[in-house]
């Protein structure tokens, strides 16, 4: 259907319309007389615009749009100052509103004749409808087609939603957009119900955000439009008008003083408008009513005024076009209206406007003469006025003198400032450092700020905004790692020395309960370290807590065959598994192990007979240990279950093939009675040899895994755990010697706590070792991607640690694994452990704002109100959950119904609740 405007001169319309009216199928209805109290009213110079209607409450969803159109004179009320917002708008009323919106009512009122129309309307509306036909706002063909069976007069007929979309789109001159979108698909499910001509108009109105759907993405094209909805559609369409009412002024706020709002338009012209008790102010972004104090200098506003009085103001953009300058007040020259501020690049002298406004950080007014020297101030200058002076001063911080307790959050050496996490407020505070600062360490030593560590617990003193003193109460735990070649180990195993990269020596004390890891050795100790080992040291506050042998100059030979042993020369000749001969010297320090017995060198001859198979640990040409081969360890590289053969890659790098006893048992941590087919390539095993040393008669699968403790039962010595896949396991800890607790001098079963992590090693079904992992849970206060470190403030203690994560780490967040440290954000709550492969694992807690329902003290559960996201409503607590308000601990039963909280959840359990 052709939807182009039909332009017909007013002088020619009467004859055509009268002829057409004679051939319509339905009779012509005489219009009832209409009075000025109709819902659209008569606009004239004497008319008073009604902006408040008795039946439209301030809470009505369309109050803004109704008020706006009333202020523009587009709508007026009925008797008793009523708008009747829920009444259906008639087609004739909609046309009058549209014409007034276009600012063309004065042209309509020039029509003095009583035009004959092809449609039936009330008398008052005739000139408007004739004008609408003439201007193409509606067309004869569209409005008379298919109306023969409709008994309701055209003018009184309720306007449909699709018909209103057409009229509004034409009102704002967007006919071409509707034409472009006529062939586009509709977003609405009920598009099949649209009239053939309507798709383009509805699509255009939707794209311009003038109309939207009713429910479930339906438009209901034949549905009626209420008067409130009609006002809303026209109000939203107003932004598309190219020619606005003379009442409308758009510009930028220059000032707001003594109920006078001064604005400047984009041509640089300024004007002033009075705001009285009847003036209403709305925010365009959410249609909310706002106070006049919300309007800031250089905000963009839309004003409807009459004779210099603003009846309606809309904040169309909260952006301030202001230049900002911040510094410390050095001097104030009121007689010259200038201010001197100190910045990083020196002293800056700035000119002030005579009417400069001064506020504190919360917006409270201040007198310019009362700003203390030394205050941190922000100066703002209007950028829409060329060469403008500073018109606003915000006093962000007055000179401060205080003492406080907290921790060091950061030391900015270049800016010569220190940030503290204040213990009382829980907030980070930053201060410049005085030239005369005194820093005292815990032992009373005086030093400078270079000795401060992030996380140090300190007392500090501030005078006139500068830090003048810091007393370190407790230095932060600093975890570092370093690699080098082992050069010496003291006899008492208290000091270890390495040759660091760059050929510098480093000597370190060894912490109690420090652990040693050497690949291939079960339960290694510092006695197993050898000079020349390439080691990685993990240090806590410069003390060794762990030594890992990365590689060593010690050679391991598995299943060497003795060719000869000369006890006089102490010379041992062997061949490896491929037949290559080797000769080694024995010394008085060489140990011989036969089964579990350690024998002196005098007993070597009777055991080191030709053909015996032994395992050797050799340094150059000297034998450190000889052990009669009773078992072999390695990684399965080949497996032939048909021929009962297995190939192992040993710790020394040898690939050795073994026969296995038919029907042998393969023992694992989950199945003590497995069979050979249970093995797979890549498994690490321990194989027990027959007495002849040529066949494996039993296999134990070796496994090391990290588990989370669910329950540790001291009476049964049983530990229930789960792995990272959620699989559940139970193991017995029959002996406290199996427990290693690097963070404590003790190693008791009671050290195994629920919600903590353990690293468990098995040999077959036998538990060999349980290492309690040091789990850190806290709030991120700093992330340094350059040094790969994360600074954490522990949740319960408040202690701060700097954790080096290195290059091998994984971040888990919302079930997704990430590998970029930048994924971490300040104030994230995290849990940090090392997994089975000693890779740092950082798990980010899920954070949300929730409302408390109740606390169940029987089940120790917190119940929450349902939210829009459909999240869980019942949570258990971590064993060491941190419940607090500020720095004050809160009991679990201290959370009451309807209380708003910040909730942090890890592994479906609450680790922290923060009260606002």
TrEMBL record:
<dbReference type="InterPro" id="IPR001119">
    <property type="entry name" value="SLH_dom"/>
</dbReference>
<feature type="domain" description="SLH">
    <location>
        <begin position="185"/>
        <end position="248"/>
    </location>
</feature>
<dbReference type="Pfam" id="PF00395">
    <property type="entry name" value="SLH"/>
</dbReference>
<keyword id="KW-0732">Signal</keyword>
<feature type="domain" description="SLH">
    <location>
        <begin position="49"/>
        <end position="112"/>
    </location>
</feature>
<feature type="signal peptide">
    <location>
        <begin position="1"/>
        <end position="30"/>
    </location>
</feature>
<protein>
    <submittedName>
        <fullName>S-layer homology domain-containing protein</fullName>
    </submittedName>
</protein>
